[in-house]
Amino acid sequence: MNVVFYLNLADKPYLFRLKELTKSTNVWLAQTFSVLLEAKIKATNHDAKWVVTTRHDMLAALCKEEGYDSRKEINLWDYVGSIFHYKGINFLILPPLDSLVKDPAGEFIFKRAYSKIAEPKAWFPQTAFNFQPATPASLPALYESFKSCFAIAIDIETIPEHKLMKEVGYTGIFWGEASKSFTTTSFTLEVTTPFMLAWVRQFNLLPAPKIGQNFKYDLAYLLRYDALPVNYLWDTLTLFHCYYAELPKDLGFQSAFFIRDFKFWKHMSSASDAETKLLYNGYDTWATANVFLAAMWEMPDWSKENYLMEFPVIAPAFFCESVGIKADVEQLRLVKARKEVTLERELARIKLMTSSGFNPNSSPQVKKLLKILGHDVDTSDAKMLEKISYLDPLAGVILEAILAYKEASKAVSTYLKEDKLFNGRTLYAINPHGAETGRNASKSHHLGSKGAPVGLNIQNITRSDDDVEEEANENIKSYMVADEGFVFGEADYAQAESRDTGFLSGDTVLIDAVTGPRDFHGVNAAAFFGKPYEEIIKTTINEDGSSTHKTIDKPLRQLAKPVNHGANYNMGEAVLIQTMGLKKIYGAAKLLNLPAGMTAFKIAEHLLAAFEATYKVVKGPWYKKVIADVMNTKKLVSPVVGKHRWTRYCFKRPITKEGRINKPALNSYVAHPPQNLNAMTLNLAFKNVFYEVQLNPKFEDNFRMNAQIHDSILFQYREGHDYLREEVKKHMEYPVEVVDTFGTKRTLVVPVDIKGGHKRWG
Predict the structure, then answer these.
(1) Which of 188, 191, 517, 718 is surrounded by the fewest CB atoms within 10 Å?
(2) Nearest 5°: phi and psi at 115?
């Protein structure tokens, strides 16, 4: 098949890769605007029915021909994989060719999109877009037909600033026994009257499985309207996360990925006429339905197994984020007032040392100030300010004031805003698809918007130093309080990732250190820094076999923590310095009596070498196995027997084609197995506690789940019902069988530390 390529001048250095992938010689680099007619003539002259372009101007011309009504600027990347038809010629939009070498997934995405031309029969046959008007007269017939649906895709449009639904779109998927193929019917309901809302409830109660794209967002609104659907079983965002976790997961990208004759439609959301907006919602559900069908047809078993682990986490996540945590508004105001005093104090100090017009929140102004002080840097983030403060004590006086101001400013602007509360509670979102490792992530709640956010990221609240009594009223978490008659409990996995690293690698020294009766960080400090354990920690074995630890050398124990956590995942010297800060790095040198005049890099090198010398298997056989797995199979398979067996497709190469170490890729992949195992263990615990405790009729009146936070589960229990803490622990501590680097099966149980009994979180 003849194909004509219309490209940008910037694509020229990468033409060799294009020709390798397509075997094409019909390539033109245009310096000026190329009208569509010119492209058609080129194609006709070469007996070609296809034009492939990376040009924004040609895309804009195609959109204009389509009559696109959009108030948004056209973005080339939105349209990658889109196919346009113009005067008998087909146009395929591809990304700029530099993505072939700069983006780890660039070649994969290019080949996938180009296969729409090269291998059209390899694509799942999409359904035709059949949009039906939803009127009082047509709805009864639509409802009757939807009773026989194979599945139903649902999508809502909202007015976030008012927390209202505007429309609910539906696409019914029908199986034709005679034709042995799927068809679809789409329509959109305007939620403007009780009559239409009643129909929404009726359609949502149909027994057919429901499909959504990031449907937990939709559920937050449907819950407000008492219109939750039954049999929500499929989420295309979650499906794709379980397939290609490293790729974008928005519906536009997935549609280009799975639907051959696809054309980006999201510009329709900004249309001015009501008819187009209804049609837009219909396209959303049609795309969701077709993405689902194609995904189920194409996805391998391993990705479906991932889905069976990840999708059930949505239920407890939705429950937690819908309930939220009660807010003590008076305490919020008190903490905010304390932070505002800090703001005013530090701003006054800053102005004395600069000028009245200086804005410490302005990155350009801070960088300009640093330049005046003799430090010409590219960034003015907190780490850089801390570094300069230590190296330049005179500059440090003002920089410490700026750091204190920024910390207080973030607290006031992000965490201590009454208008972010909803019905007197703090809400948040918990997203199972938030990380490539399977770990849950958090952000503000679905009921908000960028302009009017609701809630906050529950996992990212600034920590105060709990050991400093005078800061009690500056602890941001303190305004979050237990419900009446309840107290908080928090169940935290102990050294989860270090345990996972030990058991997965088969490093028996690490396994013994993390499972033995002695304090883990004390053991590390002794091993890393050559000091007897007894001089760091006093460990007492109790009558019941448990251990009690008393720290004798706190600085040395604290130093072992960042070294262990960083070295676990191949952290380099520069990152360790950045993580610890220069003050602590040089403090470590003094603590360890290292030679005076040692550079920060050499000190960091010394610290990391101590870990490597202690746990030889981690950076030896285990790292080699991870590298080999990724290079040979492009996948990382969690070495777990039975449950938790998660598989991740890997686009980045830990070893380049030239044979060099790609450190960011290597670090990402050596971190994945323990982080993924920890995520799967915690997610299963999250589900266990939800189904076995929260939904258990014996406990539900006395127990309330709140959130999954890093390695812990936050919950509340009724005062006097302390036994529920042990109930939570029981459902979190369960055995997981893994196979280590050397093929040895090991049974891992991560112990849980539980604290509780407080009315205020934190």
Answers:
(1) 517
(2) -65, -15
